[in-house]
Design a protein that fits this description.
Number of domains: 2
Distance between the termini: 12 Å
CATH architecture of the largest domain: Alpha-Beta Complex
Radius of gyration: 23 Å
CATH class of the largest domain: Alpha Beta
CATH topology of the largest domain: Naphthalene 1,2-dioxygenase Alpha Subunit, Chain A, domain 1
Order of helices and strands: EEEEEEEEEEEEEHEEHEEEEHEH
Amino acid sequence: MELATTLTGQTVQNRVREIGINANHWYAVAWAKELQSHNILPIMLWNQEIALYRDSQGIVQAVEDICPHKGVALHKGKVQGDAIVCPYHGWEFEAGQCTKIPYFPPEQKLPRACVRTFPVRERYGIIFVFPGDPALAEQVPMIDIPQYGDPDWLMVTIGAEFQAHYTICNENTMDVFHGYLHENLQGWFDPVLLKLQETQDRVRADYRVSYEGPMTKFLGLNETSQATTRTISVNYQYPNYINSLEGNSLKGNSFLYLMRLPISPQKSRSFSLMFVKVRIPRWLTEPLRPVLEPVIRNLFFMRFLRQDIEMIESEYAHYVSDLQRRYVEVNPAIIAVQRLMVRQYEQYMNSLPATQPTEQNGNQPPAPKTESRILDLAN
C-alpha cells in the first residue's frame, strides 16, 4: 500500500515501547566466529536464555540455558562429543534428551528430563535462532544476502549493542532525517522522503539525500569533490533491514543488511553486513581486503554509529524516566514502522494457545500502565 509522504505531526503513544517480538522469525544472535569448538556461548533472545555450542561435526546446536535437574546454567558446563554436560552433576543432554547421568548404574533407566532445543542455522558468518514454534522454522524464510562471498564487493562487518528497547533502534534505522546528527562527519544532508510503502510485514521508504567529502568519493558515491544526490531505499522486512543506495539490485552502489537482536526490553544488539565498491582496482582490492575492512569500519561507519548509540540510549533513558510523557513524530515512515512492529507482536500473541502465558516465554516483566493504543492505525 502506498502511503502519503507528507511530514505531519502525530502523537506517539508509549505502547510501542511495551511490546515484545514476533518469535516466529529467524533472529541473528551471534557472530559465528564467537563460537569456537568445545566452547559454550550464552546468549539472550528476548529474555530467553539460550546456550550455543558445536557438536562433534562442528554443527551449531541451541538449547535452553537451564538444566532441568537443578536449574543451573548449562553454559557453565562443557561439550563432550555431541552432548552438552551440566557443570553441577554431570548430566548429559543430546538433542534435548538426557542421555547420561554419571552416577547412575548402566542398567538404570534415565529420568525423562529434557532441555528445550531451538532451530538454529549458521549462515553469512552469523548464527541465527528461531525462538518460536519449531514446526514453522522451515516455512519462514531467512534473510537473503546475494552479495555475500562475491569478490566484486567489499564486505564490512559492523556490530553494536544498545541500552534501549529494540523499537527505538529500529526507528533510528528508518530515520534518514537524522543526518543532522552526523554533520561534523560529512554525512548526508538535505533528505527528502520520496516514496513510502507498507505491507503486512514490510515498510519501504525511498529518500533523496546528498553527500560530499573524500570518503563518499572513495566509496563510489561521488565522482567529483562537489556534492552529489542519491536515492537510498530503507527496507524494513521484519525483523531485519535491507537498505540500498541507488537501486535494489546487485548494480547498486552499496547495501546494508542489518539484523536486530532484541535481548530484553532494556537491551538490543545489531549485526550488520555492509557491502561497498571502493575506488580501487580489483587486483589491488584482494590483497588489501583484510586491511580495508577494519579501516572502513573503524574510521568511517563506527564514528557514525557511536553518535547514533548516544542518541538512542538518551531517548530510551528519558522514556523510562517518565512513562507519561508524550512525543511528537513527523516522519510517516517512522509511524509506519511502529505500526508494523505492533502488528507483528499482536499477530504472534494471537497465535498462542489460550493456555499459554500471556507474554512469550512467561518471563517478561509487567508492562507499565500507559495508553492502550500506539497511534491512530487508520493514518
